[in-house]
Amino acid sequence: MSLFDDFLTQALAPSGITRQEFSELMIRLLDYGVLSREESQTEAQLYDRYLQCASLVEEYLAVIGVRIQHDRQFAFVRIFPPGAEVPGVADDDNSPFNTGFRVRPTQQEVAVILVLRAEYQKSLREGQVDEKGRAMLSLEGLAIAMNNLLKRNLPEGLVERKQLFRRLKQLRLIQYHLEDDLDSDESWISIQPSITSFVSDDVLQALGGESQAEPQQSDEENA
């Protein structure tokens, strides 16, 4: 057994967590980039395990420059790779979307994430979030917001739409019941509170400024 193994075993002893359990936690966290207690029974167990050894997880990841954001109120943990922007931490030289440890979001995904964040902020202002911090949004409402804010549309094909929403669900940004319902504008999705850790306030404000500037520019052109 190496010196590191000895150190890890001793450090884990007070928490009662085994090296295998710690390994499972780290693999899941690095693979998905996020843990949400409300997502599933498996993630609930891993999140509770994280609480038992949070300081050790932070020290372990700090060695490779990975930072952690932990939201105790809504029970989720998100990790950020070296150089990524972390909400609440000044880091203007980097993009806030370098948050995935598997595949970086596509332009289509980024566009939808931005709009979801704006709609979530709107729900917060209007007090339209539940006790777990979730905000409901219809696909029709999302499509309208996409057009108003970014002049873009949701994918028309069901396969592409399913793939898009499946990816956002993997990032723990939304929840929905049945994929087959995603072709209906009357379907609803739940925006998760972890969306606030994925898009910084500065980006959100910039998005709002651009959307307000376009109508003003159009009015000037028509004058």
UniProtKB/TrEMBL annotation:
InterPro entries listed in its UniProt record: JetB
Origin superkingdom: Bacteria
Protein name, entry field: DUF4194 domain-containing protein
Organism (species): Gilvimarinus xylanilyticus
Lineage: Bacteria, Pseudomonadati, Pseudomonadota, Gammaproteobacteria, Cellvibrionales
